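Hi support team,

I'm filing this because I wasn't sure whether my run with phenylalanine finished correctly. The job status page said complete, but I'd like someone to confirm that the output block is well-formed before I use it downstream. Pasting the exact inputs I used:
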Amino acid sequence: MPPKTSVHGSWSSRWAFILAATGSAVGLGNIWKFPYITGENGGGAFVIVYLICVALIGIPIMMSEIMLGRRGRQSPVNTMHTLAIESGHHPAWKYLGIMGVMAGFLILSYYSVIAGWALEYLTKASSGDFTRQTPDGIKTLFSNFIDDPKHLMLWHTIFMVMTFLVVARGVRGGLELAVKLLMPALLVILLVLVGYSMNTTGFGAAVEYLFTPDFSALSWGAVLTAMGHAFFTLSLGMGAIMVYGSYLPRDASIAKTTFIIAFADTAVALLAGLAIFPLVFSNSLEAGSGPGLIFLTLPLAFGQMPYGTLFGALFFLLLAFAAWTSAISLLEPAVTWLVENRNIKRVTATMIAGTFTWLVGILTVFSFQKDSPIIFSFNFGGVKKENGFFDVLDILTANIMLPIGGILIAVFAGWIMSREASRDELEMGEGNAYKTWRVITRYIAPALVSIVILQLFGLLDPIFTLFAPIIDLLSNRP
Ligand code: PHE
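And here is everything the job wrote out:
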């Protein structure tokens, strides 16, 4: 039988959970990644696919993940173990939890390096380094920075220490306190920035870019990226939300909280787009410039606008805060697992997990250099390119590990757990809402995610060739 409460603590209220889960969800994914992958994948159509994935796959899987966490009340590994046994199945389900812990390590290892960029740019912006810079000047600033491993290491280390300091203090004194202070600040900063961007000449172009879909520009690779991003941005498929769910009071409605979190996360991504793209367009900058997008384009805009030093500093502060509240949730599953299985104190567990992640992060530090020694060349989703360690980690985690973790979570919640157990835990009765959740979780979400992953490896090509004439007919292509 699973324990009634978690030994690690609990949130003080339902709202504390909502804030923490939103803090986990809103991160570099919303402010750094969403704009640049939207830019790389052509805008509106990509945004629509991403929104569909959030609604159809993200929301039901988030409900499942919170539900499993709250029922198991332990680290994701032991939660999966206990719940599998409770439903009379094989305890090997714990490997789903272990894969989640691994994904958390891998994501945090590069996440921390990029969060370090934000910290560096916070200091650059506040010391007026961007003022009246030329595009070339900004480019040099950026490439000199990412080419300098010592500098990157310093910030990577600082960010990991910041993460350690919060996680080591535990659920209420660390995680909850951090999100209560940081999340309201984040919202205010974001609104101020959107307010500014609304008054620039590029605002109309940005709205059109984000919300006018051109489906002919959409590739399979883009669909996969959009789906992977839905998992990434909602922190799904690796146990972060599961472990947060294990601290959730019994009387909170899982469906309602999930809707609030998913809505808030999506709203922040779109608002970030509305803050960033107007600046890109009013300065005739390149929307598709990849991971460097906000570091290459925004400083230029900040360097020219009135009060640019202030707005620039605010923006990178926003980015750092958002990354911080997500990083703690990436480390938490591993920490709880160590505490439970090794019988050590939280501080020691955080130290061990943090040091390990820090070490793996060093590989990302070296992957941005001009002549990086670590280059992989492979063909994914139909695009062949040279990839550094960072790209490999990004594809491996967001496009493969999280979606696979997500399917397994859905399969567990829909097929392994008994109908009574999930109905009790979700407390929605036997009405249509529950039935819809169950159908999506059992059939639709696993099927959609499998299709996209199979296509990643080109396995569905024969089927698509078979249906090509029909698809062409439907999409009106000659
Ligand atoms: N959701 C976070 C973001 O958008 C990243 C994250 C992924 C956090 C997985 C926890 C788990 O930046």
